[in-house]
Design a protein that fits this description.
Elements (H helix, E strand, L loop, with lengths): L2 E4 L2 E4 L1 E3 L4 E7 L6 E4 L2 H22 L17 H14 L3 H12 L1
Antiparallel strand pairs: 1-2, 2-4, 3-4, 4-5
Helix pairs in contact: 2-3
């Protein structure tokens, strides 16, 4: 999947064969912000315009724009893996949060 990026916001690109159009929406925010175009250049420009419009609208209305991925999330990993991670973090003398952050960072 190809992603678009502008001012810290991320959007996807989907294809509608029936409508002969490229379209997408902002990802990782609850606000529904969409865009479309008939070419890659058009959809990129429409995406950037949509982000700018979202930010302008938030400013005009006095809202704080939503930031993609706030920095915290809940995961379900099962008892055994959770316990093993807690033990490993304790052995390393770091918090579980630090252990998970370091582990994810290594994979990325």
């Amino acid at each position: 999947m190809k992603l678009l990026k502008h001012k810290g916001y991320i959007g996807d690109i989907q294809v509608s064969i029936e409508d002969d159009v490229l379209h997408g929406k902002l990802l990782y925010v609850s606000a529904l912000v969409t865009y479309e175009g008939h070419s890659v250049d058009e959809v990129k420009a429409s995406f950037e315009e949509a982000v700018d419009d979202y930010l302008d609208t938030c400013e005009e209305k006095g809202y704080q724009p939503e930031v993609p991925c706030k920095g915290s999330f809940n995961i379900r990993i099962g008892h055994d893996l959770h316990l093993a991670a807690m033990i490993k973090a304790k052995e390393m003398e770091i918090s579980l949060n630090e252990f998970v952050t370091e582990s994810i960072s290594k994979q990325l």
